[in-house]
Write a structure and sequence with these properties.
Distance between the termini: 43 Å
Shape: globular
Radius of gyration: 30 Å
Largest sheet: 2 strands, antiparallel
Number of helices: 14
Structural class: mainly alpha
Number of strands: 2
Strand order of the largest sheet: 1-2
Helix content: 55-70%
Length: about 350
């Protein structure tokens, strides 16, 4: 330390006693005096330079998981549309979910989760029926005449219904959620005036009821008392299995039968729905829920209807009218309103 309290004397770190003779008489032997007035700018410069470091690249797992959820789930509507051409809708959906549910059940038990008790199966049964008979079976029936793009756009309203049906559990919808629902319904009315919802009236009613049924099942599942822990695979497995069984029973009552002469195309569509739609995409979505912000994980809700319309038009030649584009935009805006929250005002 120098004579003044505001000065620091620094000698070269490499000018040690052993090298004193070498340094003698040179500039290296001259002390460097730095005032404290110089230290603060140096510290600021050091902090500033640290902010210029290159950020690590985006986790490739996030990119792959989002791509899987976006692409696969938006293409399942087209795969379902292809499958129901030759296969009965409810039995087709039943095969898909029973097979996927069995795989997830085995995975959960291998992870150490015990087999669920009978009371847990009874609690899950109505939820599985709402999710997979109402939320998926109705879509399968409706797609006998409704285009895959139109079905995807209407089903994108599911998050809106979740917000409104929160009243079942005492959650009062906000004005923002009511506004999103109104905009979404306007989108459906616009869609009904175009080719995407030009199917039979009963099928149009079913496709509108499907996301409401799925939303109700989702709301009920939130407060489901379970004794099986929080394994990410067990509850979905139970929901798929119970829903798949209900689908099979209702399909049998409707007189549905699996045709023995169904083409390979139909079976490939079912296989795609099972492996990719129910297993791969679900696993990716489940991983996203645990590793990224919820707004990122649920962003599929306003990406998928756009991609589904493009898939339907590009692969099956489904018509895209002005009404489809306008309705898609309205419903995407409505879903964004429902899934996002305004930033709180800064406190003074």
């Amino acid at each position: 330390m120098g004579a003044g309290s505001g000065e620091i004397t620094i000698f070269p770190a490499y000018c040690r006693t052993s090298f004193a003779s070498a340094c003698a008489g040179t500039a290296l032997a001259t002390s460097i005096t730095i005032t404290t007035a110089t230290i603060e700018p140096m510290r600021i410069a050091r902090l500033y330079s640290s902010t210029l470091t290159v950020r690590p690249a985006v986790d490739p797992r996030v990119v792959l998981s989002l791509a899987a959820v976006y692409i696969i789930w938006s293409s399942t509507y087209l795969a379902m549309r292809i499958a129901v051409v030759e296969l009965p809708p409810l039995l087709m959906a039943s095969m898909r979910f029973v097979a996927a549910g069995l795989v997830m059940l085995l995975v959960a038990m291998r992870r150490g989760t015990p087999f669920p008790a009978s009371r847990d199966w009874l609690r899950v049964l109505p939820i599985g029926a709402l999710l997979f008979l109402g939320g998926n079976g109705l879509v399968a029936i409706a797609q006998l005449s409704v285009t895959s793009g139109g079905a995807a756009v209407v089903c994108a309203m599911m998050p809106l219904w979740v917000g409104v049906l929160g009243v079942v559990t005492g959650e009062r919808p906000t004005r923002r959620e009511w506004l999103s629902l109104v905009i979404g319904f306007i989108g459906i009315l616009v869609l009904m005036g175009g080719p995407s919802l030009a199917g039979e009236p009963l099928h149009i009613v079913l496709i509108i009821a499907a996301p409401a049924s799925w939303a109700l099942g989702s709301v009920m599942a939130r407060r489901l008392p379970m004794s099986i822990g929080k394994d990410p695979f067990m509850l979905p497995a139970m929901e798929m299995l119970t829903g798949g069984v209900v689908l099979a029973l209702v399909g049998a009552v409707r007189g549905e039968r699996i045709p023995l002469d169904a083409s390979a195309t139909s079976w490939l569509a079912v296989g795609y729905l099972w492996i990719f739609g129910s297993l791969v995409a679900f696993t990716a979505y489940n991983w996203l829920l645990r590793n990224v912000r919820p707004t990122v994980a649920t962003s599929y809700a306003y990406v998928n209807p756009i991609l589904a319309v493009l898939f339907g038009a590009g692969v099956s030649g489904e018509p895209i009218g002005v009404s489809t584009i306008v309705a898609n935009g309205l419903i995407v805006i409505a879903v964004m309103l429902a899934l996002t929250r305004p930033k709180p005002a800064p406190t003074p």
